[in-house]
Amino acid sequence: MNKTRHYENLHIPLWLLKDTCWMLQWKVLGITMIIPTVSVAVIIAYKTWKEKEDEFWINLAICFWISANSYWMICEFIHHEEIKNYAGYPFVTGMLCVAYFYYKRLFSEEKKNIID
Question: At what angle do helices 88-115 and 53-77 cross, to 10 degrees?
């Protein structure tokens, strides 16, 4: 198993635990889980930037998604829901990363078809 896959397998339970704490209103543990969840997401994005540049954009989008999700959770926990809409900025940035990923994939496929 490659090292990136190891981090991906670690990341899923961290993310699920963070969101479960949010659902159960376990504020301290939920906020504490932000640190390892975002950290592992950043490590995965960094590793894919070094190893598989095309997957980097999807993993960067995940970093933005988790950051937005974490911000939203904190807003709800501290009863400042009126500012949770600012989570939209990293959500949109993540969507732009995904769009770029598919844009690059589309044009790399077209280049292969032109050459063949």
Answer: 170
